[in-house]
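Hi everyone,

Forwarding the result from last night's run.
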Amino acid sequence: MTYKLDYYYDNQKFEKIIELSPELINIKNKPEVFEVQLNFYYSKALSYFGKTEQAKYFANKTIQNLENIYNLFEEPIRMVEIANMEYVFGDKERAYKLLLLAENKFGEQVEPIFHFELNTNKGHILSQWKSYERASLMYQKALSAVRYTKHDKKKIIAYYNFARSNQYIEKNNIAIEYYKQAEMLLYKNSNPRMLALTLYRIAQIYKLENDLDNLAEYLKKVNVKYLYEGYHSDYHQLSKLVTHKR
């Protein structure tokens, strides 16, 4: 059954996990390894279908014993996924501790996706703690891990995160350089929301630099219907600057 759950999870057949899990959860005296894995997969599946409170309950059951997770999971990426689950649903301190455990156990591995996911999640937590300099270092490590791979979607995320962290610490030239790297890949990989956000971030920096020509150029590129609603007010303020210039 463990292999079947692995297969369903790896192939994103979450409806199958939802279908199987309740009956399996009711089995008493399950092997500890199986119980941890079952709670993990069920939480992920519930989260996928938007059942946040139930997902949080099974996430907490998964991560209540970090030492067990450290000993039971032999796949590096699974430990990082569980840390991400804790970051989303629970305690960021505990999530960071789990990431450090994963790094300690699997850090010598050269698999780039593991290092990308590990350092991206560390960067997210450090950003939440407003430790932007340290977050930028983590995002730089994540970028280094995937930069020369064929994983374009992960490279987009890596470029964007590194750029954003540099924007926070006012290293605007570096931020623009890496936002534009993300922009170039986004034209080849359809993700209109991410493209709109990236173009908007570049426009923000040009506003700070008082470069109204480039601000106007990038605002024209933004498809507002794909820009998250929370950014609309600022977008219109930027547009007014360009209008007044003319």
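The longest helix spans residues 32-48.

Cheers,
N.
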